[in-house]
Design a protein that fits this description.
alpha/beta; Rossmann fold; seven-stranded mixed beta sheet
Length: 217
């Protein structure tokens, strides 16, 4: 039987339910990871796309020299992000758009960096989303993620498979090993390289991942 994370409508349903209390649950637990993503993004600067901005928790963390465009699939989550931008005076946030991570409505090579916090293992087709991130990224730019990295084998991998049906009902995949990322790099139509893989608190189950788009010329 398909889980909610396996189709776009299911993802929208899950995050409509999460919207009223998402900040209370997820602000503190991923604080270190969000800070690390914002810092890495700030080192690149320029025009930044945040995919899956949610309620906008990360938006105040980006350095003000970055020009932020942010997108999300959930109207309810995006409404909260817009309120944060207005309330906090986040003038470096230029656009907030309703958009699907797997079908980004931007030209090729638009952005200097693409950031996504806890997004890749929540979309129906993770590799398709990563391919879109790479498409809209300029050569030399980076995809910067905070993402769950599961085990490829062993007891932890077996447990993640058992827990997957529960995790899917909450809106993510517990079973998401590094081989999904390395496999995407090897098959992508874009030339990509891994720059960093850094486990983050809590417990190192989520990592900051950086991938650079190489020039083909």
């Amino acid at each position: 039987m398909a889980h909610l994370v396996d189709d776009k409508q299911g993802v929208e349903t899950i995050y409509r339910r999460w919207a009223p209390f998402y900040d209370a649950v997820f602000t503190a637990v991923f604080e270190r990871g969000r800070q690390a993503v914002a810092e890495a993004t700030g080192r690149i600067g320029g025009h930044v796309l945040e995919v899956g901005v949610g309620t906008g928790i990360s938006l105040p963390l980006y350095p003000r020299h970055c020009r932020i465009t942010a997108v999300d699939l959930s109207p309810e989550m995006l409404a909260k992000a817009r309120k944060k931008v207005s309330t906090l005076g986040l003038h470096h946030v230029e656009r907030l758009e309703l958009m699907d991570a797997e079908n980004l409505d931007f030209p090729d090579g638009t952005f200097d960096a693409v950031a996504a916090v806890c997004v890749v293992n929540t979309v129906p087709h993770p590799e398709a989303a990563m391919e879109e991130f790479a498409r809209v990224l300029r050569p030399g730019g980076e995809i910067i993620l905070l993402s769950r990295v599961g085990a490829d084998s062993g007891a932890r991998g077996a447990l993640e498979k058992v827990l997957q049906p529960v995790a899917a009902r909450l809106g993510w995949r517990s079973e998401f090993p590094w081989s999904r990322f390395s496999g995407w790099i090897s098959t992508s139509r874009h030339a990509m390289e891994t720059v960093e893989r850094r486990p983050m608190p809590p417990l190192g189950h989520f990592s900051v991942l950086r991938f650079r788009k190489l020039s083909t010329t």
